[in-house]
Design goal:
heterodimer, A: about 425 residues, alpha/beta, 6 helices, about 40% strand, globular, B: about 250 residues, Rossmann fold, 4-stranded antiparallel sheet, 12 strands, about 35% helix, about 30% strand
């Protein structure tokens, strides 16, 4: 998307027929929490009154699982997640066999020359260089992993073809996984994390985007129907660096991706995109965090989701924090959901915390709705029948994110996957 | 030779205060090759007529009929009307995110013709039409109307008119918001299709300006949901001089 259209869209009024969704607890979790009162009111911006972690800046971070209280489902950051379906990720030792990791080129092609792939032990210096767990499940994985995969894009190298990291699960025992992606100074690359098979896994992905680097990380979740996946993907973004992060969640029983980008050096730019398509019974959750800690950085967030079928549930929580020091920040986040059938539920909570008035811009938007009748009318007035028009619109709606990936082979695969979702929904 | 016939059309919309009648008995017959201009003050029902012909679900037809060569248009769905040869150039074309112009134009053409256009001639036709309307070639890869200026959106409507070759074109205030250059370009686009002699036009406008470039055979003045006066091109000249004042109730003149 070009700058102009983004600006134009921001200025545009909410689309007719779209409503803002309120917040609520996951029906699977207890509802007698102190949060329920505040959260039952729509759009509470950062949690209820008196909740200690209501500011994202104050959230507990630790490498130790014991520092985090046992989960009850009432926590601000777990209240939408049906804990019962985590299959023990939050209660058991994560000692199962982790999904296998293979580093290739795009779509399984030959690994591009010039990158370094290592399997390292827990004591490697790069472990902990970009991330620190922010919740109990992530900390449990941090304690439990035995070896990590480190993929390095060497300084000043430009890797023309995409790097594929295939993560393939074959065991349902709760397991832990650790991956580190390092984009050294002035390097340029696209890295695709590709999740398939069946697994119950808590995963930490550390992304170190060093000064002047230009890195795109795409995380695709095309798991089998029974997979449970919690993924903390934390990026540290260096001076004048560019980081693009794309989450694509299509398959799995419960997928919870928590990406974060910490802007700690001036002049950096972050774009975070997401696409999810939930079918009957699926729980697809994404909670992102953009931390503007220094002046003159820019962030853009756009997540789009489609839902169809009974109890299809999606959650999007977008925390953007503009700290006191982060003068000149330019930030915008938006989430758009399209509900295609009855019985589906989309929760959408944009949280924008601004601690300085000296910014370029900051905004958020959230829309959840059915089809826009005006889109349909326009297309049908050109002779296109309703079914084709509806598909064209959904495809178009989601293509806006797919177009951001810029890896032709992967874009094609995801377009096909969306087509299959549409066909499966009799849509 | 085709005929679009509107007879004693009454149309209303649902509002919070209940049904509101907008068209109060409109009759109009347009034949292939003819250009009819519909003029009138704001709120007179001009655009309602356009949207009703196209079948927008917001407008409820209470009585009367619209037929094309004897076929009942009101019984057709929106897409059937388009395939029957009706085209509405919209006053406010919507943005359709994610659908590229190229994809949209080809999908629509395929739907209208019942078969996919031949790729080679189609690509050439699209390019040529775009260049005549002075639309940048890179628009083909952009999403439908997304981020287009008001003038660009109107040009793209006329692009579709040229490519789809309808039997009847309804142009709903296509001239609004256009500067003189854009107005000329858009009018020339319409006139190219008109000159084939295979299309009738219903040109809805608030201003007489566009009538310098698109010459109407008939002018109908719309006031309060009815046709208040009809005549030839000379009626437009009179409106340009006098405005709509003489059609309005005394109170509205103040």
């Amino acid at each position: 998307m070009t700058e102009i259209t983004e600006k134009a869209r921001i200025g545009a009024p909410a689309i007719d027929g779209f409503t803002e969704e309120g917040e609520n607890l996951s029906p699977a979790n207890p509802d007698n929490s102190p949060l329920a009162g505040a959260s039952a009111k729509s759009h509470s911006h950062g949690g209820g009154v008196g909740v200690p972690d209501s500011s994202r800046a104050g959230r507990l971070t630790s490498y130790k699982v014991e520092d985090f209280p046992v989960l009850t489902g009432r926590e601000e950051d777990w209240r939408f997640t049906p804990l019962k379906r985590l299959r023990g990720l939050h209660t058991q030792a994560l000692t199962g066999a982790a999904p296998s990791v293979a580093v290739t080129g795009p779509e399984g092609a030959e690994r591009p020359a010039g990158i370094t792939v290592e399997t390292v032990g827990r004591d490697d210096s790069r472990i902990g260089s970009a991330g620190i767990p922010e919740d109990r499940v992530s900390a449990a994985a941090w304690e439990a992993f035995s070896e990590a995969t480190v993929v390095t894009i060497p300084a000043e190298s430009s890797i023309e073809t995409a790097v594929g990291i295939s993560v393939t699960g074959s065991s349902k025992d709760p397991s832990a996984q650790h991956i580190v992606i390092v984009a050294e100074k002035f390097s340029k690359a696209v890295v695709v994390l590709d999740h398939k098979g069946s697994a119950t896994v808590s995963q930490n992905v550390e992304i170190d985007v060093q000064d002047g680097a230009d890195l795109t990380v795409v995380s695709v979740q095309e798991w089998d129907d029974d997979a449970v996946h919690a993924s903390s993907q934390q990026a540290k973004v260096g001076r004048d660096a560019k980081f693009k992060h794309v989450v694509v969640s299509l398959g799995g029983d419960l997928v919870r991706v928590t990406p974060s980008a910490r802007l700690k050096q001036t002049g950096s730019e972050v774009e975070m995109f997401g696409l999810y398509f939930a079918d009957a019974g699926q729980h697809l959750e994404q909670r992102l965090f953009v931390d503007h800690a220094v002046p003159n950085c820019k962030s853009r967030v756009l997540y789009k989701g489609a839902l169809q079928g009974e109890n299809a549930h999606t959650v999007w929580v977008g925390d953007v924090l503009i700290r006191k020091e982060a003068e000149g920040t330019d930030s915008y986040e938006a989430n758009r959901n399209l509900i295609l059938s009855d019985g589906a539920r989309a929760d959408s909570v944009p949280n924008l915390e601004i601690e300085t008035g000296l910014i370029e811009g900051a905004g958020h938007a959230s829309t959840t709705g059915r089809f826009d009748d005006e889109h349909l009318f326009y297309l049908m007035a050109r002779g296109i029948d309703e079914k084709t028009a509806r598909r064209l619109v959904v495809r178009g709606f989601l293509n806006e994110i797919i177009q951001q990936i810029k890896v032709p082979a992967l874009e094609e695969r995801l377009t096909d996957a969306v087509e299959r979702e549409l066909a499966a929904g009799n849509f | 030779m085709s005929t679009l016939e509107i007879k004693d059309l009454h149309v209303s919309i649902e509002t919070e205060q209940g049904n509101k009648e907008i068209l109060k008995g409109v009759s109009l017959t347009i034949k292939t090759g003819e250009i009819h201009a519909i003029m009138g003050p704001n709120g007179s029902g001009k655009s309602t007529l356009a949207s009703t012909i196209a079948g927008h679900p917001r407008y409820i037809v209470d009585s009367g009929s619209i037929t094309m060569d004897g076929e009942n248009v009101l019984e057709m769905s929106v897409d059937e009307r388009a395939r029957a040869g009706l085209f509405l150039a919209m006053q406010y074309p919507v943005e359709v995110p994610g659908v590229t112009m190229t994809n949209f134009l080809r999908t629509a053409k395929t739907a209208l013709d019942g078969e996919a256009p031949k790729l080679r001639t189609w690509t050439k036709d699209v390019k040529e039409a775009m260049s005549q309307l002075r639309i940048d070639a890179d628009f083909a890869q952009r999403n439908v109307n997304e981020g287009f200026s008001g003038g660009e959106k109107k040009r793209v409507e006329i692009l579709q008119l040229e490519l789809f070759k309808p039997k009847f074109a309804v142009m709903d205030e296509t001239d609004s918001g256009l500067d003189v250059d854009a107005l000329k370009v858009v009018s020339e686009g319409h006139n190219r299709v008109h000159e084939t002699g295979e299309m009738g036009t219903l040109l809805i406008t608030h201003y007489t300006r566009i009538l310098r470039y698109i010459k109407p055979d008939f002018v109908h003045v719309f006031v309060d949901g009815r046709i208040a006066e009809e005549g030839g091109p000379e009626l437009a000249d009179r409106l340009e001089e006098e405005g709509y004042d003489r059609f309005l109730p005394t109170a509205a003149k103040a």
